Amino acid sequence: MARACIVGAGIAGLASAIRLREKGYEVSVFEANPYPGGKMHAEIYDGYRFDLGPSLFTLPHLVDELFELCGVDPKVHLPYIRKEVLCHYFWEDGTRFYAPADTARFVREAAQTFGEPQQHILNYLEKNQRKYELTAPLFLEKSLHKFQTYRSRQTLKALLSAGGLGIFTSLNGLNQASFSNPKLVQLFNRYATYNGSNPYKTPGIMSMIPHLEMGLGTYYPKGGMHRIPMSLYELARSRGVAFTFNTPVSRILTHKGRAAGIRVDEKDIPADVVVSNMDIFPTYRKMLPDHQAPERTLSQERSSSALIFYWGMNREFPDLDLHNIFFSADYPGEFRKIFQEKSLSADPTVYINITAKESPEDAPQGGENWFVMINAPGDYGQDWNVLVEQARKAILTKLSRMLSVSLEDCIAVEQVLTPVGIAARTSSYRGALYGAASNNRFAAFLRHPNFSHRVKDLYFAGGSVHPGGGIPLSLLSAKIVSNAVPTP
Interhelix angle for 61-69 vs 11-23, to 10°? Predict the structure, then answer.
């Protein structure tokens, strides 16, 4: 039986393993960490359970279809619910908006809260939907680096519509042209952070991202986000995929222009196909040192990273939900700090995820597990001890003021994850969460392809390659890889 070796057991590595196994390969996965899931890990600190990584679940059908591919009912192994409220939004002047998932309600209540005509909001959401439906089959579901992609009628239609997609303006520019209320502009600007980008630079086509939430829904998996990779790991094992943990791969082996296997602990393991789920930067620098690297691709601006505080709170907060955003009063300044100065804003936008709202067992009775995150630059040698202390003080001051409570007194447990820690745990270059940023109109085409032009039978999956970062796009990268790998 032909063999496939996969480097890394992140979400894309797990999905690639399942797809290649069902395609007829003997599949072996090698992971440096002692657990599967990559960034999607979880820990329990003194009775408080935290998902350490991604906290938003959209496009669940991409997970479901992996189970269905294996003839297994996904609802049995990964049950999830659709959220009726997308997010709770807070501003410094006391404005609050609890965004409903139902489109008609969202339009009606957003119009009332922000004084914006309902038709303006509805038109914006409908345009986002059309952008997504027009471009997703091209930009997300197929390789942009294969000639046949551009031969379809759908691709031609998308390219002819380029002028109306917002490619030639920034997301902020598009949003300012759509709405008069700066708070509503800020609300929709924040979707740039879903791929680690700057709303004042990323192209307006990124306005399709809200459609993932508002049109297609946000979901919560029973047991938390960590259940997503764990359920896929269990599925892969049940199908005969072999996993080896605590085992970093030191080299991807090649012979006569083809991938020939991997090197682990000075031992060479042959393979017919190799898939790297490792960040593309260390893949070339560490595992393919003798091969010419795509320097233009590797030198692209990195996406943002994150500074995360895991706070076990000794009380409950009824004003908060699963997803909560406390906006900065100076949003442009926050992104200047992150992308230009490689530092942190004195007034950061704060995201709080509380899974205990859906899974009460994630915190002791009467308490809550707060995943408190601010967007941050990657690791460029900053003094993170200083930045952490400054950020902690700024966050506590901001939240205490906006929630009218002394939060310092509510923290029973605290852990911190910096970009340095993210890089160490996940081999993400500089701790960037999404590989390259999407801060220019050609970003989609500049991402590394899911295959090697120079080494046959070598493929790449994960958030640092096409089509991008985040759970759905990483799963799509695995699907693109599977479609490209020949049937054995």
Answer: 30
- Tokens standing for 217? 């829904």
Residues of the chain with pLDDT under 70: 138, 142-164, 443-445
Distance, in Å, from the CA atom of 456 to the CA atom of 448, rounded to the nearest integer, reads 15
Positive or negative CA dihedral for 404, 408, 411, 416? positive
Query: In this structure, are residues 354 and 360 in contact, taking their beta carbons and an 8 Å threshold?
Result: no
Q: How many helices (H) and strands (E) does the chain have?
A: 17, 19
User: In which residue are the tokens 């030191």 written?
Assistant: 250
Q: What CA–CA distances, in Å, run from 251 to 9, 274, 427? A: 17, 11, 15
What's the whole-model pTM score? 0.94
Q: How many Å apart are CA 203 and CA 456, to the nearest integer?
A: 34
In order, the DSSP letters of 415-475 are EEE-HHHHHHHH--GGG-SSSB---STTHHHHSBPSB-SSSBTEEE-STTBTT-SSHHHHH
Whole-angstrom distance, CA of residue 415 vs CA of residue 417? 7
Pairing outcome for strands 3-7 and 26-30: parallel
Strand 323-326 and strand 305-313: the pairing is unpaired
Rounded distance between C-alpha atoms, residue 51 and residue 362, angstroms: 10
Residue range 406-432, pLDDT digits in tens:
999 999 999 999 999 999 999 999 999
